[in-house]
Amino acid sequence: MFEFLKKIIKKNSPEKKPAAKKEVIKKPEKKTSSAPKKIVAKAPNLPKKKKALKTESSIKPPPKALKKKPLEIKEEKAPPKEEKKSGFFSLADKIKKGLTKTREKLTTELTSLFTGKKIDEALFEELETILLTSDVGISATTYLLDSIRASIKKNKIENADEIKGLLKEKLIELLSPIQNPLVLKGTSPFVIMVVGVNGAGKTTTIGKLTKIFLDENKSVLIAAGDTFRAAATEQLEVWGERNNVHVVSQASGDPSAVIFDAINSAKAKNIDIVIADTAGRLPTQKHLIDEITKIKRVINKCHLEAPHEILLVLDANTGQNAISQLRIFNEALGITGLALTKLDGTAKGGVIAAIAKEQPTPLRYIGVGESIDDLRVFNAQEYVDALF
Ligand SMILES: Nc1nc2c(ncn2[C@@H]2O[C@H](COP(=O)(O)OP(=O)(O)O)[C@@H](O)[C@H]2O)c(=O)[nH]1
Ligand SMILES: [Mg+2]
Asked: Rounded CA gap, 29 and 248, in Å?
């Protein structure tokens, strides 16, 4: 019965019906590099306000602490755990649904592990295996097991059933520091540079993210900075149409120039946010790093505070490899936030714990599906609740 309802909702999702919208959209003509920059004036939901706020991108204390300093925050994203209804399903339900694979794996394995068992070394070894095979990683697994052992000792716990609760508690503790939602600050436009390897989900995440910002009454301009693959711009334009947002592109050309154009246009049109796509694959890793570092420099030349956010998109399916991608991109650019995609397609949702332990970086968003509403602001408690 629920499957049936979900299907209906999916059918009616905004992705499936952009046709009516299309007519209204002034699709930009492809520009030659010498052509003057044309920016469609149309930008939906445009409250035109200049913001003067500060950038904040360090690892944050848990959310309570955030609430203590609302004064300097003029524009803030809605708290992630709000039970905003989306169709028949709340946000928490959607995340639960998205994490079904990981949850099924963990629930089955942990239930059989703890039910009626003695707390002994064999049990800890099995728990270690379960965590490692969920991509929690060696370092986070060791940390979790040590904290659980310490709690068992301290509280004289004898019943193995209680370990599940302890594991949840320790996981939330571990993940809370990287729960750090993106806050729009600084002089507009707020520039988000989106980076990541090919196929990680950058373009899709940009499409979903645009929707999140539009829902908050922000105006958005997208820059098609992946000029390496011909199809990349078209794919981005489809997302632009779905959102009724202009995509700045050039028929051929230098990604830095495209993004430079976009930022200047956004300035002229008082647009709140520029989201810049970038290439994920170039002939060599050196080419890629050279290009994205150049893009960052150019962005900074045309807007001193920008990029305000360098968002690395990681595919959860790549497991431990995601950590090495994070290290490489961070070294080159200084990553300020993460979007972890495709959590719906993997049983390895534990990779978030590995990130939190090995390379703690603000986890802004999680991707739990392919449709426009499937990007969620990360919340540690909600995530762990959806896991088991
Ligand atoms: N299931 C699922 N698929 C996703 C998600 N995010 C992206 N994808 C898919 O991953 C593929 C690659 O995404 P794309 O945005 O083109 O990656 P890019 O090369 O980094 O721009 C596409 O087929 C997307 O639909 C997600 O959260 N869940
Ligand atoms: Mg792409």
From this structure: 10
User: Residue 340 in contact with residue 135, Cβ under 8 Å?
Assistant: no
Give CB contacts under 8 A, 24+ apart, made by 166-173.
167/110, 167/127, 168/384, 168/387, 168/388, 170/144, 171/144, 171/353, 171/384, 171/387, 172/380, 172/381, 172/384, 173/147
Place of tokens 């990349």: 232
DSSP 210-236: HHHHHHTT--EEEE----SSHHHHHHH
Contacts of residue 244, defined as CB under 8 A and 6 or more positions apart, other chains included, come to: 21, 24, 25, 42, 44
Determine the residue of 99, 208, 227, 370 to mutate for testing ligand 1's pocket, defined as the one with the most ligand atoms within 8 A of the Cβ atom.
370
Ligand 1: atom nearest CA of 235 is 16
pTM for this entry: 0.79
Mean pLDDT of the chain: 81
- Residues 225 and 263: beta-carbon distance below 8 Å: no
Amino acid at 124: F
Higher-scoring residue by pLDDT: 120, 87: 120
Residue 133 has pLDDT above 70, yes or no: yes
pLDDT per position as a tens digit, 235-279? 999 999 999 999 999 876 799 999 999 999 999 999 999 999 999
The Cα–Cα gap between 115 and 290 comes to 54
Query: What is the rounded average pLDDT of the residues 356-362?
Result: 97
- What local confidence, expressed as pLDDT, does residue 115 receive? 84
What pLDDT, on a 0 to 100 scale, did the predictor assign at position 32? 38
The residue-averaged pLDDT of 59-76 equals 38
Residue in this structure with the two tokens 């300093």, named with its chain if needed: 69
* Measured distance CA(52)–CA(185) in Å, rounded: 7
Angle at 100 between CA 96 and CA 102, to 5 degrees: 115
The 3-state DSSP class for residue 195 equals strand
82 CA distance to ligand 1 centroid (A)? 26
